[in-house]
Amino acid sequence: ELRRGFEIGFLIVLPFLIIDMIVATLVMSMGMMMMPPSVISLPFKILFFILIDGWNILVSGLIRSFF
Asked: What is the pTM of this model?
């Protein structure tokens, strides 16, 4: 179960990591060195989580794991 947990954790973090990398690349290419990329990427991460219906997926997965 530990291996499966790491696999699931990696699959959850991967899209957010990709969003971070894309935003950081865009911010640096526009020359905004002093602007932290996390300030710009956080709204995109929240929007992505809402668009994929993240709360429903998260809660239903937790409920299924107990039964």
From this structure: 0.73
